[in-house]
Amino acid sequence: MEDYSGTRLYVGNLLYTAQPRDIEEMFHDNGFSITNLDMSIDPFSGRNPSYCFVDFATPGEASRAMSLLNGLKLSGRAVKIKPGVPKKPIGEVPKPRIKSYGAAGHLEKWSSGHLDDGIFEKITTSQLLFVLMLLKAEIASSDSNSYRPTFDRWTREDAADHWQKPLSKGTRLWVGGLPRIEPQSATDFEMQKLFEGFKLAAISKIVSPRPPEKSGAGNQYYLFVDMATPEDADAAARTLNGIDSPWGGRLNVAPARGNEDRKVMREQFGVQRGKEREINGPWRRRD
Questions:
Q1: For residue 37, which of 49, 21, 48 has the smallest C-alpha distance?
Q2: Alpha-carbon span 77 to 48, nearest angstrom
Q3: Burial of 1 (0-12, 13-18, 19+ CB in 10 A)
């Protein structure tokens, strides 16, 4: 892995709509030349997470830029600039943190790589078969010790334009009945195992239920999955919808539809409450 010590800066407090060219112009217009810019763009919203990373040729140049530009306003908002962190190794398999609700709490340890004593006495036959399928995928990934994101938000140049296309193509699925999975790379990895055998195009962030989950109500988190083709979307929905989930309860998989889901827009777009209608082309589960 390359050593970015002292030459990488974190640039935060950005507008969600800021694009890489805006950051590049900010540094260029103030007399600085950057060697690299890393910004994650969510393919389901076309927006950044409010921060990015930039690299300089020397630690001295990075330090000077941080001193002079920290607090500079970009599109009316003061940016926060501080030392960045090295890039994570590419291909490292993420370690999930999974919080299940209801009767499936015993599967939480398995998701972190540890089987609970007596687990096979607690789950149904269909759950067991599904666990074995996921375990097979986990062993395969462990053997190769590699992970590749379904949609690399840091390198794909089409992320900002991706999010509306799957709706018109009929390739976006709503997936419900999920536990809380963190971080995003782990969510992506778990969905890759869940949809093994189907061609995936992108996986959204996981969304918390509304109203918030109640004790004993089961797993109520959900997300959206973009498939490569309408045929893959149809086949995945028919195969996975209604099956017993390894996290407890039943898995719900259905075509997404173009409509308003204010919860998704607030959590994924950073839209303020009451401003959801200003976003064009949101989506939700198709009833």
A1: 21
A2: 15
A3: exposed
